Amino acid sequence: MARIDFPEEVKRLIQNLKRLPGVGPKSAERIAVWLLGQSSEFSEELATAIKESGEGIRACGICGFFESKATGCALCADGGRDSAVLCVVEQPTDVLPLERTGAFKGAYHCLGGRIAPLENIGPEDLRIDALVARLSEGEVSELILAVGSDVEGEATANYLAELMRRSFPELEVSRLAQGLPAGGGLENADELTLYRALDGRRRV
Ligand code: ZN
Question: How far is the centre of ligand 1, averaged over its atoms, from the C-alpha of 87 (Å)?
Fold first, then answer.
């Protein structure tokens, strides 16, 4: 007697769902069964949304934020920003909590990660060349390092601060004030904490 399992189509769906962050085998099964109960319009809309965001979104060549192939980069298109102040973050998603504080009106630069020797991520894997290219244009007078307060964030901030001292000595470089959760990235900080950290940034 064969051991009965889900049909192949459903097994494939479960296998794919299990690859999503934070989704374990049980959740993957639950989501798959839930999806089976939805209308075909919903399934098609979901599949299209996944496909189109995968194909239509890339990192902006200038700032590293999400760029839509159809509508461009919202940050770089925003002429109302103070281009003299540049805030360096690890991930494009770090821009969103900072924007919600309403405390920052300057430009951003997303590194696309942080220096993590244990994961074999070095400075050359980050968008540091693109940062140097922007700074070489001479418009930026203040650089805010808004990277995480964990070991990798510290390493990244120290590397960048040293690079700036050597290459752009006239640049004012500051680091977000402490108050950010120790060992945490920006995505876990609440708006008030981020606002205070930005307001109380210290020169490095
Ligand atoms: Zn951009």
Answer: 13
Residue 138 C-alpha from the chain's centroid = 25
Cα 107 to ligand 1 centroid, rounded to whole Å: 9
Sheet holding 57-59, edge to edge: 57-59, 66-68, 72-73
Each residue's pLDDT expressed in tens, for the chain with a length of 204 residues: 889 999 999 999 999 999 999 999 999 999 999 999 999 999 999 999 999 999 999 999 999 999 999 999 999 999 999 999 999 999 999 999 999 888 899 999 999 999 998 999 999 999 999 999 999 999 999 999 999 888 899 899 999 999 999 999 999 999 886 656 656 677 767 777 777 777 778 787
Write b or e for each residue in 80-105: b if 16 or more Cβ atoms lie within 10 A of its Cβ, otherwise e. ebeeebbbbbbbbebbebbeebeebe
pTM for this model (two decimals):
0.80
Helix/strand/coil for 15 = helix
Q: Which residues surround ligand 1, an ion (CB under 5 A)?
A: 60, 62-63, 65, 73, 75-76
Beta-strand relationship, 66-68 and 82-89: unpaired
